[in-house]
Automatic annotation (TrEMBL):
Its main location: membrane. The lineage of its organism: Eukaryota, Metazoa, Spiralia, Gnathifera, Rotifera. It comes from the Eukaryota. GO terms for cellular component: membrane. Pfam families: ABC_membrane, ABC_tran. This is Uncharacterized protein. Residues 429-653 form the ABC transporter domain. Belongs to the ABC transporter superfamily. ABCC family. Conjugate transporter (TC 3.A.1.208) subfamily. Keywords: ATP-binding, Membrane, Nucleotide-binding, Transmembrane, Transmembrane helix, Transport. InterPro entries: AAA+_ATPase (IPR003593), ABC1_TM_dom (IPR011527), ABC1_TM_sf (IPR036640), ABC_transporter-like_ATP-bd (IPR003439), ABC_transporter-like_CS (IPR017871), ABC_transporter_C-like (IPR050173), P-loop_NTPase (IPR027417). It is a multi-pass membrane protein.
Amino acid sequence: MTDNINTATAASTHTKETSIPICPDNRKPCALDWAESSWIRWIYVILWSWLNPILNIGYKRELTIDDLYDVSSNDECGLFLKKLETALEKHESMGTFKIIIKVFSKECFLVGLILFPYIAVKIAQPLLLKQIVLTIYDSNIPSYEGYLYAIGLGVATVLQACIHHQYFFRSTRLGMHVRIAFTSFIYKRLLSLPTSSTVKTTTGHLVNLISNDLSKLANLSAYIHQLWAAPFEAIIVFVLIWKQIGIPTIFGYSVLLLLVPLQLFFSKKFGTDRNNTIEWSDKRVKTINEILVGCQIVKMYRWEEALEAIVYDARKNELNSIQKASRIRAINMGISFASLSIISLATFGGSLLMGQVLSSTDIFMILSLFSNLRYPLTIALPYTIEVLSESRIASKRINSFMNLSKQTVRTKTLQECSSGNDNPRLGGIVIDRASFTWGSTQSIELKDIDLNVNPGSLIGIIGTTGSCKSSLFAAILGEMSLVEGMSKVYGKIAYVSQTGWIFAGTIRENIVFCKPFDKEKYERVLRSCRLFADLRSFSAGDATVLSEKGVNLSGGQKARLSLARALYTEADIYLFDDPLAAVDSSVARKIFEQCISNNGILKNKTRLLVTHQLQFLPEFDYCVLLDHGKIEKQGSFNELLSIDRIKTSYEKQEYNTNITTETNRRRDSDVYDCDVTDQSETIDEFSIVKNEISVHGAVNINVWLKLFTSGYGWIGLIVLIFVMFLGEVASNVANV
């Protein structure tokens, strides 16, 4: 369906904006916004004084979530989601990198400007150090100049620290903005994808997409400026050293330039191993998810050991890829640590071969300049290239997900006026010679469907199992691809699926589903869905906490709860996919009369009911008989009785219904027609879902020892400590 058609389902509600308050109301506004709101408060920003209230509380006691500031208005995910959607509306074919450039280029540019004063104060320090050394060795220079240079060196060091932390904070914040924007977009896109698209991805793929791939984009956003800042700083340093020693500068930079392609090669290898790691991670998470979903079947057939072996093999392959990537990273880090010594050796060795005599001031300055280049050229730049390689892989995976909906031709529907009760067609459905399929490569599921549903009518859809009754609802909802013909839906839709959908929360939360609470309407819905007796059976009533998928409910309770959620939703069209099959016949009759029939609370709404209970046929305004994806016959109840098998089935079910005893009816009346007390303030003391609590204290030393010895045992730990100690000794000897 088109985006302007609002679809509210029993499992999820499709709306353009959903706001659920998750932050405590007693939080203080973000102090950073206050500090940045006026230029006279710049000192609070530079010195991070806006964090003092939290630091003071943390000094006195342990911080809680209520002590933190509220989220800054500049960090709201809705803000970046809107920017992302606006950019995609104008350029639907843009890839991930182009979207980031389009949406975040201004913020990225402003962050990059901070590096210019940062590089300036970094380079100023070796020059000031040279002047201090000259002052010490040259007695002709006034001593006060040495003090001024020393003060300047101190100021430059302080400025470097302040600017560095501002850059790091704002670049990391930029990465966070990228991550929350794409996380929100992926989540919203996932909710709006048709079923034919969601089957092309897996839970493991989506988990890795958000937890791993988006983190790579966030890291790239934080380090992207090193791609130009490191070479820019290297050029400036080259010019300064060239002025001091001339040609020997080329020897040092030759070594430096040789290291860059070597690190590019290692980055490419790292990207390959990283891609393999992601693939194995997807398989492992997918397998574990399938085990958790089907844990009851796994235990019933005693498949634990077999599935454990599958997970172990997937994890083993994943660890092998991680180890390969870690070895490459270790080589890169080793090169970065050794680079300064090698470059200095090449530079000073070249000077020695050319017969140059370097003064102590030149040596101090050159070593200091090379030391400044060590981090940007041998650590930051290779890491950025490494992250760029990972981000390219991540962007391809994100692009493939974003293109899922583009690969599926959605049902073309129209809504002439979704809002406004004066629209005469509101609540109508028109399907004219339409054929639908679940995917462009699959066979046609529904063929030559002609259906004209008038607003406010009650339509019964019947047929044998496998006759595509549920597929017809999926076509109306826009979950199937329209191959030919026309399909129009007018108004907002509420859908109740065959399997009740329950989320972790109270019974009231499952029914109200983020809508404003209306007590009168709420109790009317409970009475119509026969839920009062069920609430009385729970100690906390409608405050009873349900677990994920409602494992503490029966099948009939799940069905009636999902039905109640749909009824509480104000929709124009209601699609009921056989929700009465999960309850007994007497309860089904009462629910049908009070909810769905022309005498129920939805009597003025358009209702489509899929059912195998033919005793309801006389109640329908119009009946549709489906057979293998085609409409075999449609018309009134009497017209469908002209088909022998329908007449026989109807008479048989009518007979079974009539033999229901009056005792059962009286029992049902006594049980289900009672009122429920107001339990809005009741707390479920026996909730199946327990709140998380934080445990305070120190981690036992045995836990750390087990962690450090889990890989290669005690021998590996001892060798690691010895190698680290030896490395520090070698580093100190090299610096002497």
